[in-house]
Design brief:
The protein has 1 helix and 4 strands; from the N terminus they run E-H-E-E-E. The protein has one domain. It has a 4-stranded antiparallel beta sheet, with no helix packed on it. The longest helix has 4 residues.
Length: 65
Amino acid sequence: MEWTNVKDGLPKKEEVGDKVMIHRKMNKAQSLNAYSVHDTTMVKYCDEDTYWMPLPPPPKRNNQS
């Protein structure tokens, strides 16, 4: 998976699903919030210092008892 800058394109819900991971340039006090998961439709409100990528697939469950 690759990071995409919002100025290069926005995520399409039909291609990536309902949620995406975003990375935003933050100040030092907010650095723990630099990575987060957002609704796909909300990315259009992010500034140009924001990058997004599709969420990875969920882990496979081991069906052992």
